C-alpha cells in the first residue's frame, strides 16, 4: 500500500481527533513510566509487553469504538477488530517497550489511519520529550509541542536541503542486528548517529536520513511513516526501494534528495545479521 498523491485531503477534524487521542495515550504512558508497580512479560514472539502497553491500547480502542464504531482496528497487543467501513486504525501503544522497561525515555505512542485510498493519517507522540509529529494526506506535516499537543500550536515540518550523500547525518535503528556489510557501507559514506526518535528528527531537520535494518519491524511500527514523511516533503521506502508498507519491513527515510543515492549505496547488501554465525565461545 503506497501513498496516493491524487487522493482527496483528509478531514481536518479527523486529524485533530487523532492528535488528541495520541495525546491522551501519551499522558497515560508517561504516568506509567514513572510508576514502580507495573510488570512486564515476554510474548510468544520473544518481545516484551507491559501492563501499560495493554492499558494504553485499551484506552485508544475504547475511544475509537465510541467515535468511529464502523472502522476496523489493528493493535500490536489486541490484534485485529473487523469493521464495516473499509477504513482502519493502526495502534502501537508504546513503540519502544524495551526502552520503556529499562527506563529510557525514548518510547512513543504511534497511531495511523488508512482509508479507501491508503495511508491517510500518521501520528508519533513522544510524551517524555513533549513533542509530537502529526500529518494527514493533503494537510501537511506538523510538529506539536507540549504535554497536551494541539494543532493550533504546531509548526510546519522542515526537512534539510542536503543533496550530497557524503557526511549526511543518518540515524540508525537497531544496529546490533545489522550485518557488517551494511554497517560498513554506510559508515564509509555517511555520519551514523544513534536513533533518538528517527522520524521526528527527520521532519525537524536534525538529520538528513534514517535507516532501520536487522530484525523486521512490525506493520504497526511503520504505519505512520508514509503520511508523515511524504507530507513533510521527504521519502520513505524499504531498503530495496519498495513502498514501506509492502516491503520487507526494513526502512529508509530521507529528505527526498538523497533517497536514490542511498538506495544505490545499499543495493544488493544483506539487511539482517545472521546470528547463527556467531561463536558463543568468543
Automatic annotation (TrEMBL):
<protein>
    <submittedName>
        <fullName>Inositol monophosphatase</fullName>
    </submittedName>
</protein>
<dbReference type="InterPro" id="IPR000760">
    <property type="entry name" value="Inositol_monophosphatase-like"/>
</dbReference>
<feature type="region of interest" description="Disordered">
    <location>
        <begin position="67"/>
        <end position="87"/>
    </location>
</feature>
<dbReference type="Pfam" id="PF00459">
    <property type="entry name" value="Inositol_P"/>
</dbReference>
